[in-house]
Design a protein that fits this description.
six-stranded parallel β-sheet; globular; alpha/beta
């Protein structure tokens, strides 16, 4: 059976911390692939992404292009409304019945698992993998595999703010993502 990790998010922009987490989880759990899954409308965020979806997908593809074990999965972008993980995983498990899925989340999301849509049924479809993050406890009434990765206090919000303030995104995002940000004048 194929083992696939999924890391979801707005990826606005995707950054080196996303890639490091994905690579470490893949190696530590001996996963075959990691799928980066941009969401349409994340239910836990108040506003939509400020960057149009096709540009976010272009940035993710650029970010993962150098790792043969990484790919982009756009299934959530093909649906309208909020992107509930349960609905997505129901579709993916039907489409790929010979695949075991591992859903990668940060410690901030581990704390909120009890509030996730259809969490009990979702646990039948995926194994959750929690990645430690500074400032968050790691407790949940649900089973979560814990993976430790180097702590990097980098976020898409930080990168957008730095670019808006006239700073470069260099060393925070892959070079090809930096080129897209600059070429399309994102976050200015």
């Amino acid at each position: 059976m194929k083992k696939v990790g999924i890391i979801g998010g707005t990826f606005d922009p995707p950054h080196i911390s996303h890639l490091l987490i994905a690579n470490d989880v893949r190696q530590k759990l001996a996963l075959d692939e990691i799928w980066f899954m941009p969401n349409h409308i994340p239910p836990h965020k108040q506003n939509k992404s400020i960057t149009p979806t096709p540009i976010r997908v272009e940035m993710i593809k650029a970010a993962v292009a150098t790792n043969r074990c990484f790919r982009v999965e756009t299934i959530e972008l093909q649906r309208e409304g909020p992107s509930y993980t349960y609905d997505t995983m129901l579709l993916l498990t039907k489409k790929y019945p010979e695949t075991r899925f591992y859903f990668i989340i940060g410690a901030d999301m581990v704390e909120f698992l009890p509030k996730w849509h259809n969490i009990e049924k979702l646990l039948e479809l995926v194994t959750f993998v929690g990645v430690k993050r500074p400032g968050y406890s790691f407790s949940s009434p649900f089973p979560v595999l814990e993976v430790e990765t180097p702590e990097m206090d980098i976020s898409s919000t930080l990168i957008r703010k730095r670019v808006r303030d006239g700073w470069t995104s260099q060393y925070l995002v892959p070079d090809k993502v930096k080129e897209i940000i600059e070429e399309k004048r994102l976050y200015e």
